[in-house]
Amino acid sequence: MNQLFLFLLFLSLTTLPQSSINQHFLLFNDGNSQLQTDEVIKVVQDNTGTYWFAEGADLGNDAIYSYKNGVWVRYDASNSPLVNVNIYDMIVTPDDRIVLATNAGLLIKNGQNWSVINTSNSNLPGNMITKVEIDKSGRFWLGVLNTGIAVGSGNPFTIFDQFNNGFPGIGDINFLAVDDSNNVFAGVDYYGLYYYDKTRWKVIIPGGTIPSDMVHVTGGMLDNRNTLWVAINKNGNKGTVASVNEGVVTYYDSTVTGKSFRSMYFSVVTDNYDNTYIGTDKGLLFRINDQWNWFDTSSVPGLPANGFWRGSVDDKNNIIYSLRDMSISSGYRGVVFYNKDSVVVTSLKGAQNPGNNGFNV
User: Fold this and answer.
1) Residues 303-360: tens digit of each pLDDT
2) How many CB atoms lie within 10 A of CB 341?
3) Cis (ω within 30 of 0) for the bond into 304?
4) Quick one: which of 44, 91, 52 has its CA closest to 68?
5) 258, 288, 269: which is closest to 231 by C-alpha?
């Protein structure tokens, strides 16, 4: 039944009148898969082709799922250290460790083994880790709520805050990104975009606390040419896109994108061909071959929400976004896979549970 539902859904979407980019979509939610909730905050893919789905709004009962070739495995309090845990971010490392930023510190899944890094075994200034990234040297960069950034591969960490080589607003980290030269970008609320050149932090896009000066850099991702693309919100929900290349900032406002309405901009995805996608609360804005386009529920019947919140890309060039109805706090609507050519994702049948002894700490 699940396969039939998904096939009919996919067929209905792909046989609608086609736009100039031949849109294809595939939905994952608690009604057509083994996901137990629509509250998915992020999806990543490891080097084996396995997808990892992270729940992130279950008030201490969050879980992660692996999915490959129709087989789902759920990791929660019954078979992992995910006990009374809220998940805020997730990455996969080059050696296929699954790393979770949580309210209990940094949780790392390495095969069947789990480890935890928090204030009990390190000099981390707090356990509320909201963002995680890994650099070319294998060091973790962590956003620590209301404190700053911690960097290291374990204990001890180097701490950047307003007293230690920090910058204003360092407690409100929205994203971290590492370029090919191992320099680090940090997008923050109010104070804009900052850059660490291995020596000190520099401001790239300035902001401030006066309403007219506020610049919230909410999402960012580097493309294959080492250009950083960022989503920006200014006072009054004025969403703007910018690119940063060798310190030069280029803005793409409504006069360029053709979208002049007020919208909150969230995360940014750059695909395998350097096209750019910006999730907003009103739909998905994207740039393909220098042409800006848009879709939302009015142009894609069957799309359950307009809020494209957290995004990623897989090895098949599928653009993956968690969906939300931003008008209500419980408005999670699962995950959508989008591909301008054709979505390629294996079937949703089957499930597996490793049992209570499926992990080691």
Assistant:
1) 999 999 999 999 999 999 999 998 887 899 999 999 988 766 654 333 333 333 333 3
2) 12
3) no
4) 52
5) 269
CB 115 within 8 A of CB 105: no
| 135, 178 contact by CB (below 8 A) | yes
| Burial class of 253 by CB neighbour count within 10 A (0 to 12, 13 to 18, 19+) | middle
The dihedral through the CA atoms of 166, 230, 62, 65 has a sign that is: negative
Alpha-carbon torsion angle 61, 98, 134, 280, nearest 10: -50
Q: Do the beta carbons of residue 323 and residue 336 sit within 8 Å?
A: yes
Report in angstroms the alpha-carbon separations of 219 from 228, 239, 301: 10, 11, 27
Each residue of 192-242: pLDDT tens digit?
999 999 988 999 999 988 888 999 999 999 999 999 999 999 876 678 899
pTM over 0.85: yes
Among candidate residues 178, 219, 238, the one with its CA nearest the CA of residue 42: 219
